[in-house]
């Protein structure tokens, strides 16, 4: 369908359906299997398989959004209606901020290693009731290699995130400048013939052309942002041990699922009879 800023059908329904199905699979299939691997003496192969299952499900989400991105859909992907009000503050160019991923990882490490020896022993004894030793001690005294790799991942994000934001600002400035230029040119050209209003000066065709250029750049920015998110998730999983990767993915899934549960619980508490 040709691009038109003024006559586009909103594709929100199919994206809402996709995200609902994706979230349901994450909540009812992937996450329970991963938790089962963490809370029992599951074999290394079972744990590895469930880590891979969750990772592939997360990557599938971003790949699907990338395939769906085009000049007609990008406004709805950047400002997704399938995200609730609790999730919105954590969004960066349409999805979770990359910084959240490493912050989550560091919080797991810091929480485990800031405990005193006595507190840690008590915490460990309680955890051992339901968790194998390798799970309960996964974040204790992380290796120098892991800490160095996290620093490298964060360094890459500190370079990439400002670049993406700068590209977004330039695309927006370019759109406004082009529409303004067309408006001024039309106004000057038609001034001697008849009064020109903003509506007749900035014609739908000229605005569409300016918007199309911006939307194509926004598609590129959106895909690059998703590439960064995927890269960070996969780099973290690749840098951690199997048990650490499982705990990280569980925490990330709990974070994503938690917003849905919180909103549902809040809505259930509202008395709609008034």
TrEMBL record:
Pfam families: DOG1. Residues 12-269 form the DOG1 domain. One of its GO terms (molecular function) is sequence-specific DNA binding. InterPro entries: Seed_Dev/Stress_Resp_Reg, TGA_domain. PROSITE patterns: DOG1. It comes from the Eukaryota. GO terms for biological process: DNA-templated transcription. This is DOG1 domain-containing protein. It comes from Noccaea caerulescens (Alpine penny-cress). The lineage of its organism: Eukaryota, Viridiplantae, Streptophyta, Embryophyta, Tracheophyta.
């Amino acid at each position: 369908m040709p691009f038109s800023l003024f006559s586009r059908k909103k594709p929100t329904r199919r994206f809402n359906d996709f995200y609902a199905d994706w979230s349901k699979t994450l909540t009812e299939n992937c996450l329970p299997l991963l938790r089962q691997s963490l809370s029992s003496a599951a074999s290394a192969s079972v744990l590895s398989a469930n880590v891979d299952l969750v990772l592939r499900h997360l990557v599938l989400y971003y790949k699907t959004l990338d395939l769906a991105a085009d000049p007609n859909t990008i406004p709805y992907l950047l400002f997704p209606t399938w995200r609730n009000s609790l999730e919105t503050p954590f969004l960066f160019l349409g999805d979770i901020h990359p910084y959240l991923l490493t912050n989550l990882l560091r919080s797991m490490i810091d929480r485990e290693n800031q405990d005193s020896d006595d507190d840690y022993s008590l915490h460990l004894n309680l955890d051992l009731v339901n968790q194998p030793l390798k799970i309960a001690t996964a974040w204790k005294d992380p290796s120098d290699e892991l800490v160095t790799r996290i620093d490298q991942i964060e360094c890459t994000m500190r370079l990439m995130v400002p670049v993406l934001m700068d590209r977004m600002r330039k695309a927006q400035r370019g759109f406004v400048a082009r529409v303004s230029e067309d408006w001024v040119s039309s106004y000057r050209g038609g001034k001697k013939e008849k009064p020109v209003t903003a509506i007749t000066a900035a014609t739908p065709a000229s605005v569409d052309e300016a918007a199309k250029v911006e939307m194509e750049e926004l598609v590129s920015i959106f895909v690059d942002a998703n590439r960064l998110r995927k890269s960070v998730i996969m780099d973290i999983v690749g840098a951690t041990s199997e048990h650490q990767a499982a705990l990280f993915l569980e925490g990330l899934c709990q974070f994503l699922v938690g917003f849905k549960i919180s909103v549902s619980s809040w809505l259930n508490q509202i008395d709609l009879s008034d």
